[in-house]
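Provenance

Sequences were taken from public entries as deposited. Structures were produced by running a predictor on each sequence independently, with no templates supplied. The record for Radical SAM domain protein from Richelia sinica FACHB-800 is shown for reference.
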Amino acid sequence: MVQTAITPFSHRLKSPLTKQSINVLQINLGKRCNLACTHCHVEAGPKRTEELSTEICQQLITLINQFPEIKIVDLTGGAPEMNYGFKPLVEAARSNGKQVIVRSNLTIYFMAGFADLPAYCAQHKVKIVASLPCYLADNVDKMRGDGVFDQSIKALQWLNKLGYGQDPDLHLDLVYNPQLPQGEKFSLTADQRSLETAYKMFLQEHFGIVFNQLLTITNIPIGRTKLYLQRHNIYSSYLQFLADNFNSSTVEHLMCRNELSIDYLGNVYDCDFNQMMNLPAKTNDGETLTVSKLLEAGKLDLISEVQTANYCYGCTAGCGSSCGGALT
Ligand code: SF4
Ligand code: SF4
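Predicted structure for Radical SAM domain protein:
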């Protein structure tokens, strides 16, 4: 394929990407994870040690208590359940009536010391968003490691027994992300609604599993996905493919517009992808932010423009992509 210089993402926008009122706080509790998936944008794994400190956790609890405009507290990682601060943050957010989302890899429930998690999440009515990149065992194990599919199935059955996926207070969503491309034959993430129907039929028929929604997420070319693409010499062509499929109607729905993403050190970003790429959020004066600065200022709306980069094409290609699935 002949490579042409990619149009910078910011040039494709009709106007700068403005920040709206903040109502979502996404906290990345750290990089510890029991898995080490090939596509992980966090480059998380069992050997990583970075995680939230008691001091930052306390600041986050104060933030949650102080700002009623935060409606959703979204906990991610690594495996968020494995990193310091998970339960204190769940309890602070729930006692303030906020929705709590945990992005779970499901297999964590089978690690020593974590078997209480499904019942704990049910007790606190935590919404579980669980990765299951395919409903076929081979594809999942290739991406996430041997035996991950079987454990994920057992975990979903366990959650179903507790009422997840059926009780309106116990919401269970699954996340699909495509297999990493083998060559330059790229395709857009499949249509969310049709894929959800296929997942529901297959999982119900073979394993008696029910869930609420399927969220389709595009592989953003950063972290291990970027390393993989570079190793296969297809990084630039993948980025170009995403840029060629830029869909301007996704822009108004981008998740970075109404959320703050916080890292384990308390730094503030516009989204988890920018966090992983060390692209911090900035105020009008060009200052970076931390949780303690937000507390000092007494307000959350200090950012007028979202920081963007070319990997933002991953969120705006085709139907779009976000932590909440497709955008259009
Ligand atoms: S993708 Fe999720 S489960 Fe896999 S290594 Fe990364 S954080 Fe862990
Ligand atoms: S990567 Fe996606 S969510 Fe993050 S700033 Fe870019 S468009 Fe927004």
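Residues 192-207 form the longest helix (16 residues).
The two ends are 30 Å apart (CA to CA).
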